[in-house]
Amino acid sequence: MFPGEIDVLPATYLDQLGTIFARFAPRDSGNVSYGVEFGGTRYFVKTAGDPAATEPYLGFDDRVDLLRNAVELARSVNHPVLPTLHAVIESPAGPLLVYDWRDGDLLGDPVTRERFQALPTAEILAALATIYDLHAALDALGWVECDFYDSALLYDFQTRGLTVFDLDTYHRGPHHNTMGEMFGSSRFMAPEQHVLGAPLDTRTNAYVMARVALVFLPEPPPALHAVLLEATTTRFPSYQAFYDAWLTASSTIAE
Length: 255
What we know:
There is one protein chain. The protein is α+β, with helices and mostly antiparallel strands. Helix content is 37%, strand content 19%. The chain has 7 helices and 12 strands. The strands form 4 sheets. It has a 5-stranded antiparallel β-sheet, sandwiched between helices. Helix 4 (121-140) packs antiparallel against helix 5 (202-216) and helix 6 (222-231) packs antiparallel against helix 7. This is Serine/threonine protein kinase. Keywords: Kinase, Serine/threonine-protein kinase, Transferase. GO terms for molecular function: protein serine/threonine kinase activity.
């Protein structure tokens, strides 16, 4: 359905393909993404943006590298919370990543986040369960969290469906912090994401996911709060150890 390569710029191709009904161009990232309707189906298309843009923190080549990393991640794991990657189209301005379109409100918006935090605890826990299950799959494949925060989450308040996206910066395998202060929101970041040369690994995944619950769940049940406290103080040796403890604590609540 989609070509492997085009010889025009992404916006030109998408305009010819169907109807562009949304455009997203955050100045700091340099990426430009589109909502496109074609053949009665909606798609989310992400590109590296303008090759000549000088405002973004990352140059064009680095943005392209991150998109190719996103392709590797998408092809390594199949999970319902992740939009399906349908195609990668090469263009003179880098690849176009064609995903499912997902409805929902961005939890990075303060009003939306407060609305989500006000939901019944059971509904928030159900959403967290999908995030944690996804990261169990990613962790098992060696992916290490980078730059995960509330703006990587969409929540559909009608269907109670959660979508996770924009995991382009995740790293395959343990590595070290080469930036010092890494990308991301300090509300979600692990201590090692602030320290140049610090190791980043499965323990980082555990810490960040614990922070996700502490941000979104204002009053976690005591059994879960104990797990989150351990994850962010003495810390678990791995994401799987954190996840196992979370599941055990969750089962006691269900009873």
